[in-house]
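Hey, I was hoping to borrow your eyes for a little while. There's a protein on my desk that I can't quite get my head around. The fold is given in discrete form, as structure tokens running alongside the sequence. I'd be grateful if you could look everything over and explain what you see. Here's the protein in full, and shout if anything looks odd to you:
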Amino acid sequence: MSTTDTGQVTFRTEDHIAVITVDNESKKNAFTPDMMRQLAGHLTTFDDDDSLWGAVLCAAGEHTTAGLDMPKFFGPGADADLDPALVDPFGLGRRTTKPVVSVVQGLTFTVGVEMMLAADIAVAADTAVFQQLEVARGIAPLGGAHFRYLTRTGWGNAMYHLLRADRFDAQRALALGFVQEVVPFGEHIDRGIELAREICANAPLGTRATKIAALAYLRDGEQAAIDAVDEVKATVFGSADAMEGIASFVERRPAVFQGR
């Protein structure tokens, strides 16, 4: 548990994995502007460090987040500016090009859902409940829910939840494609790290190139994804890791990748 009144976001590494943890338990992990800047800084550190191949974004305690600490973001004298050079936790500006696993539990409201959907894979504890509350508060989503609900689950399901501002559970999130696994509370963070380890057992140049090419499709459509194939070839197929992958197959042994 955080010992500060304002919360914090911590960063640690396990082998090639960055584990980024939101910690403001006394306020159900509500985000302050400083916490959002810390998160952006940690995601940038991860993205810029070639020795880190995957990340897990998780939260301390029983809840992912109750949302933003609204007075600190929108009250008098609030300073919520984020340096555009940093990775945007919502993936609306700079986006990390490496794999990110999001882990959620308990209350996962508003920005918690949006940051989860900005990741690549999500694991939910069976305690997780989700709600996009903005329209019930007289506002509208600003962190990507308005289009990421669509890309994950289609128009009808997206509008069903966005326009009603209803609460739904982990099994519904699984059916929608918002999360990929539901596990018992207490096992959720370990499972997220386990998935990151599975990803990091693969060639990091290959996983990164795969994500970048997929993002090209989301950003610019099918032709951009087709055009990205040449870049994938140039980046990956001449690498030492590609040669190691072939050698390990021929020699019938696990591959040992170096990220080069």
The mean pLDDT is 93.
